[in-house]
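Recall the central idea of this unit: under ordinary conditions, the amino acid sequence of a chain determines the structure it adopts. In this exercise we apply that idea directly, starting from the sequence alone.
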Amino acid sequence: MDIADLATKLLKKVATSKGKKFAKKGNAPVVEAAQPIRMKNKTDNCYNAGFAMKEIMPADVTAKKYYIAGYRMDHPVTGVNDPLTVRAMWLDCKDGGGIVMVSADIIGLTGYDVKTVRDSLSDFTKETDCKLINISCTHSHASIDTVGYWGRLMPPQSGMDDEYMQLVFDSIKQVCIEAYKNRKEGKLYIGSVRVPEVIGDGRAAVNDKLTRLRFVPTDGSDETWFLNFGAHPNTMGGDCTKVSADYPYYLREAINKVKPVNVLFSVGAIASVNIEDVAEDRVERTKLGGEMLAKAALGIDNDEELDAEMTIVHQPYYAPIENYVLAFMFILKLCHSRAYHCAESSLGLGLLTEMNYIKLGKQKILTLGGEAFAEGVYGGYFDAANSGTGIGPEVNATPLAEIANDPDLILFGVSNDMTGYMVPSNNAVLHPTQAYLSSSRDNLDRNHYHETNGLSVEITHVIAKVFKDIIDRTEK
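Accordingly, the structure predicted from this sequence is:
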């Protein structure tokens, strides 16, 4: 037995012990089925929308030790390539409140920290009748650690800096308030375009659609676009030590060179999907990838006006934790979590997380805290001959778009939590003796590391069940 096998046993023992301690405290708080909130403009079919933006760069970014997020621990920041920002879009249909959709140039926020931000906005929520504050993270792998995973290795220390976290929290709060104050009347449109040339991936299922929610103010002032695309913002590469918002930065900049637009961005189904290798130099590749997407966004010509009606379902749920490495990080408080006793987990641990269903006119949007594989959302699972396990797709969860009965379902990934990868069951391969600690190779000799960064290999079934419950009580 090697040292990794011993570490596996120790980590699992510690996590199980924590689960037993939670069990003694009693059951986790009951989570009720959230009922849909419906709003509709009955007069002029117009929305109100407002935008705000703030930079979130610490003044001492090179004088103080900060850690680059996304690849490995103990990877300090040495400089800045481009600034990180937070952006917010308020949206309502003039009846019964509205929502705020935030886009933050950070790797992610745990549900614990999202709750901290929402709690700080409690007065705002009451005054504006805000139904949901949705915080989507662009998941840049060259941003500053805001989760805690990527700090000092030995001895382990969280990569989060308290002062920087407060800067991020305060900035999100500020842009939410300002976006509401800046609201204007206008029309909302949805459009999309396929951009397969931007995707550099050989997977069986890839969603190459760039979608654009486009708000056009009645007074002719600057439009606000919320773009969504399913590719990892990791184009700067693992050797990058300079802070960057990755390709979303260049996407926004390229659009604004052509047209003054308020641009927000969220990732879609990004698991195992990267920007095409359009240049050898990583910075140039990142720039070109963003510019290609900008050109595509500017060229969308199939806009459809969305009726001014909104449906919101904010649904907390418990996700069983089987990944004892992530559980150990929670226990060491390297990252923040909302963990409770969960009888469905072999460790006895579950994470209180959430999903949100947002419907704007006919357009359906689902927000998830993790990184989804395209096939888990839009279909196209590996067959038995090509799956990592040799098992067919019959063991997999129903694709989320099929549950929604809508192939145009938009996924906002890495939103309101940081729950890791969601690997389809028939392609989930764990190391035989070091599950969740070490990656493994499948029967086709492909590396499987995603499983080590997810809550469990059955998480897709949990998500599908919760989402089906939402659709059943909202759309039927």
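The first helix runs from residue 3 to 24.
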